[in-house]
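Bumping with the actual sequence this time:
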Amino acid sequence: MSVLLVHEDREYLRAPGDELHTDLGVLDVPEDVEHGDVLETHLGETFTVRPLRGPDLFEHFERTGAPMMPRDVGLVVGNTGVAAGDRVLDAGTGTGVLSAYLGRMGADVTTYERDPEFADVARENMRLAGVDDNVDVRTGDLTEELDAHADESYDVLTLDTGDAADVVARAPEVLRYGGFVAVYSPFVEQTREAVEAAREAGLQDARTDETIQRPMDFDDRGSRPATGGVGHTGYLTFARKY
């Protein structure tokens, strides 16, 4: 499992055995590194070792686009009940934040990324998250690979692609009884398509939530929601196979 190396306001994510190269010097991360250790670069600068937690994945993964926000990940988990031992089929890996979160929870994830370079980055991110044994990042298009997954009985199907509706239409083929599909969409048009596909496919309880989060401001005058921005990230559609 990787650790955070912290020096004042700087943080770096590295795995045991890795090297850190910065203007503060070169630092070798020992294989037996422990949380709370203080490591020193060859220039004498010190870094404190801190444990890796889920939100750190969002902050420190190498990005290949806009990753799913932790609040959206939480809604996926809360609305599907994904848990250790579940099998998850995913499309639109991107940076891999969702897959890594689910892998850290103990789910077995098969995720598809169309862009080979993005897939390579995601594989490295899974290594850093310590979940490369239970998150399988595949290069390809799930819409072209669905036949290979038919009747494989997945507990959850998660989609973050522009053509998610095409996969939702065949979700009953890959989901076990009681399984969920969860679709993240940045645009409401894609959301409507996903809902219509879910209903036509015979999935139940199809619904969509918009994710909006407002931070609070506290000062001497009083307390109120922040006025800077609406806090919208996207739309999450859920449906279930019965």
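The tokens above came from a reply further down the thread. The longest strand covers residues 175-185.
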